[in-house]
Amino acid sequence: MGAAPVFRRSRSSKLVDRLMRGVLWAIAILFVVVLILFVGAILKQGWPVLNLSFLTKMPETLDAGGGIKPQIFNSIYLVVLSLGISLPVGLGAGVYMAEYAGKGRALNFLRLCIETLAATPSIVLALFGMIVFVQAMGWSFSIRSGALTLALLNIPVITRVTEVSLLAVPRELKEASYGLGATKLQTILKVALPYAATGILTGLVLTAGRAFGESAILVFTAGTNASAQFPDFRLTVPGETLSVHLWYVTSDGTLPDAREIAAGTAAVMILVLLSLNLLVRLVDRAIRRRTR
Amino acid sequence: MPIGSTLAHPAGIQPGGSRKADPMPDVLETSLTAVPANGGGGSAESRPTVPQAAESPAFRHSRTHRLADRWAHLAFLSCSLLVVGLIGGILFFLASRGLAAFWPVAGNMGRALHLSEVFLSADWAPSSDRFGILPFIAGSLGVTGLALLIAAPAGILTGVFIAKMAPAWMRNLMRQVMDLLVGIPSVVYGIFGLTVVLPLVSHTWLADAPASGFAVSAVILAVMIVPTIVSLSTDAFESLPSSLDEGAQALGSSRWQAIWHVLIPAARPRLLTAAVLGLGRAIGEAMAVQMVIGNNPQWIALMRESTDRAPFLRALFTPAATLTTELVQELPNTAAGSTWNNVLFAMGLLLYLLTMVLILATRRLGRGKEA
After folding, report:
1. How confident is the model over B58-77, as a mean pLDDT?
2. Does any domain span residue A13?
């Protein structure tokens, strides 16, 4: 910095100070209001539609009054599958970055790759999944194409969370383990990972929420159709999720009650995400109370 | 639910290992005598893991264990290499389809285009064999720039508010608000824009119906990227040495003067990084924008021709299109291998290359700070 600024405490500077404090508070409160309005509007629109039959009926293709049962199933199924694929890879890469990859150029490059993958737009991942899984592998629009491509979205997040949580493990803990004669693997599996588990799990829940809401990837890999069977665990059938359904009914326009269906679906998604968020918060609080 | 049960063990104590077992201190001491260097380090923090030792005084260090150790190293390494491979793989496959638009490739149905007729032409009429993608590039830049214009100042000021000004309860509230905002799916943002924001501005002096276009898209995008900017700039301000703030106040600065003249300049590299990452998120967002922007590839012509309103209103509320929205809109309708399809993949490749440039730019910014 250049010369030290000279601060004058004039009347006007006091006025500016008070004004800007007000502005900062106003901006912050504005975001709170935006969130409340947002969630309120989505829930208010969806409320008239939300009932048991909406949640448990099959969707209609041309008539009004369809439900979202298979979409709920597909959403959960795809999140679980994609996490199942990305968790081992993300954990492994995170462990490598925190415990093995020294501090040199290799780690730097790895981190660059993780950051790039994390910043890659989901539509680009969708294109990749479309080329590789949908077309080259010949899997067409299916649950397996969707789950694999969705995993690409999760991997960088899980890797990052694992790395950060492992780096937060106190050094004495690991040294004590080595001191007892443990190998590196034993130390990681039995000392470091259990210590970091809470952080990783929190990150996992947030990743699940993100995968649950993802749509661009799934439109191009899992397709916009849901199986007529229920529950359909086959990996080869198209699997339209809630978020894709929400997008598809609004942009397609063949359903007479597309607006209501979309509103109801949005409300369901918001409710699921709010409860996931609440879960993370409650667990977090419980842990903090215990460790205090 | 596994989450609850595992999280119930604070600080990740192994299941089965009791936290306050009284034989522990003895075990700790006896085992630590072998490693005197560690003597002082055996703080309360390290105790949770020691029950392991209560069962087997020392980890067994057999040949199989050493072998497992080596294989595990390889496994972890291959996970990381997979990530590196993915970066290259995405580039390779996108390029293999995107660049096919410009070179005569086997399996190509159309003719090979010239680079300039794609990247330097604003004429998008795929059915008449004209593939200028300038409208989409301009649309992406326009809507992203507008969103950043709203989100960057608001996000940075909120960051400094959270880090340096807000009382604890407000800080917590803001964190929760940002966590929720970042967790809302883009299609839900889209439906909110479509059913709440668009009707608000349609049929008013702002716009004729429907009011789709840059303005509404940018506002929605701004709300979507603000959490990213807020959390990164909060970190930036929190990591500043407190002596900066104290020094400024000792020199007689007001709260705002300290923020404006000292804290923001000091945090500038990281604030720029925050803005760049926000930009990256905005430029890649597809679904929310696609739902509200109106999807009109001929928006430049429309904007020029219509004369009914003030120019800036026309610019803000004319239905438009961006790189991402055009991909969502047209990719399902085109045959693989056709020129049209290849050009769409070239747009995807462009987005991917842009991501890489932005990430490298944040690296540069970070390095600038250290130097």
Report:
1. 81
2. no
